[in-house]
Design goal:
Blueprint: H1 2-42, H2 44-49, H3 53-69, H4 78-109, H5 112-148, H6 162-184, H7 195-202, H8 214-225, H9 236-250, H10 254-266, H11 269-282, H12 294-316, H13 338-351, H14 353-413
Helix pairs in contact: 3-4, 4-5, 4-6, 4-12, 5-6, 6-7, 7-8, 8-9, 8-10, 9-10, 10-11, 10-12
Length: 417
């Protein structure tokens, strides 16, 4: 009986411990999920509404490890993680760009060592950016395929919340950026290249109008960059222009950024200038900015500015100047009046022609008068010098004659020996 009692006591203790720890684990998981849902509902919207990309970048670097730690607690940090990895990737892309600009300047100046060092730094930062963006894409793809029971790129999930759709968009873009930055790093992260094709198909699941023209713009860029992808598809350039019109109207210019990236990849200066001007004409006073997605619009602007800085530095050695989206180093600044301004200034110049001609004639007459006066002065000086010279010669001649006469008189006065 005592053995049976001890056995029962042991089983009871084990069950108590198991229930206790299971309860603690459940509490931790629930607490982590509650904190994440609170952040998604009450912290993420204000962050998306601000326009300080540098602050979002710093937040991504600082908060991503803390948010990802909740995964070990059994919570689901996917939505927050995608947003933070996107921001952290932006930080690394900025550093990679700065290193690339340093490389371009050094190469232009013929500084080989500096250029090599800058290129190494650029590749390192590109690898960091690719790693962060690929991590965001992976956690998004894994969670979305499990949650919605579909395969990314083969079918579409049934998403009801706008935040879920926004995370889907950013997760897809992170995957595409990861491919690009991995190429720039020399394949350091080994991001699968087939992500581009998955993103092209997956973007068809989003409403193009609701998301500022970005889904179709993304697809059009991939059609241009991926060999064979544009077969049977609409004209990529026209699709991009249509998407930019939507982006400008809805106040988020991600299509402009994608257009600039595609133009840069083409290496065609005319297309690059067209893309930069398209963005430059879409911003400024009176232009729409979506109040709920200011951060996304600002990040798009930074992407375009990166293309502009790179293009300017390649050609001039410095970053884009003020107004450099619309007017380039080899062009005359636009006066904003178009042909009217040219005609007006031509007319003003024509009215000023008589006055200018009269002034020119007066100047020429003055110059001629001064020249004549100078010649007269020189002539007088020459005559004066000649007169003085003749006088000196006469004096010298008289002096010689006097000396000869004196010597003769002296000779006559001496007695003969």
């Amino acid at each position: 009986m005592p053995k049976v009692q001890k056995l029962c006591q042991g089983v009871a203790l084990a069950m108590t411990v198991a229930v206790t720890f299971t309860g603690c684990s459940h509490i931790i998981k629930s607490g982590a999920n509650i904190a994440l849902r609170f952040s998604e509902n009450h912290i993420v919207p204000p962050i998306l509404a601000m326009d300080d990309a540098d602050m979002a970048c710093a937040s991504g670097n600082a908060l991503t490890p803390a948010i990802m730690s909740t995964k070990d607690m059994g919570a689901d940090p996917t939505k927050m993680a995608v947003l933070l990895y996107t921001s952290a990737g932006l930080c690394a892309e900025t550093e990679a760009l700065n290193a690339e600009l340093r490389y371009l300047r050094a190469a232009k100046a013929g500084n080989v060592a500096e250029a090599q060092d800058a290129r190494i730094e650029q590749k390192r930062w590109a690898a960091i950016a690719a790693h962060r963006q690929y991590a965001g894409y992976q956690i998004f793809a894994e969670r979305w395929e499990t949650k919605y029971k579909f395969r990314l790129g083969d079918s579409c999930p049934t998403m009801k919340k706008d935040l879920d759709k926004t995370v889907y968009l950013l997760g897809m873009l992170s995957g595409l950026q990861a491919v690009t930055n991995d190429i720039n790093s020399g394949g350091e992260v080994e991001v699968p290249k087939d992500i581009a094709a998955i993103v092209e198909r997956g973007m068809a699941c989003l409403d193009n109008e609701q998301f500022w023209g970005t889904p179709n713009a993304t697809r059009a860029v991939i059609w241009q960059l991926l060999p064979g992808a544009e077969e049977g598809k609409p004209d990529p350039q026209q699709t991009l222009r249509d998407s930019m019109a939507i982006g400008e109207r809805t106040g988020v210019r991600l299509p402009h950024a994608l257009y600039a990236v595609a133009a840069q990849a083409s290496g065609d200066p005319a297309r690059i200038r067209e893309a930069l001007r398209a963005y430059g004409n879409s911003i400024g006073e009176g232009k729409a900015v979506n109040p709920d997605y200011r951060l996304v619009n600002t990040m798009a602007g930074l992407m375009v500015r990166s293309v502009a800085d790179r293009y300017w530095t390649e050609n001039t050695g410095v970053r884009m100047a003020d107004g450099g989206f619309n007017t380039f180093w080899d062009e005359t600044p636009d006066d904003g009046l178009g042909d009217l301004g040219a005609d007006l200034f031509d007319a003003l110049d024509a009215d000023n022609v008589p006055a200018v001609e009269a002034e020119t004639e007066a100047v020429e007459e003055t110059v001629e008068a001064e020249a004549v006066e100078e010649q007269a002065t020189e002539s007088e000086a020459t005559e004066s010098e000649a007169t003085e010279s003749q006088a000196e010669e006469a004096v010298e001649s008289e002096t010689v004659e006097e000396v000869v006469e004196d010597e003769a008189v002296e000779s006559d006065s001496q007695p003969a020996e």
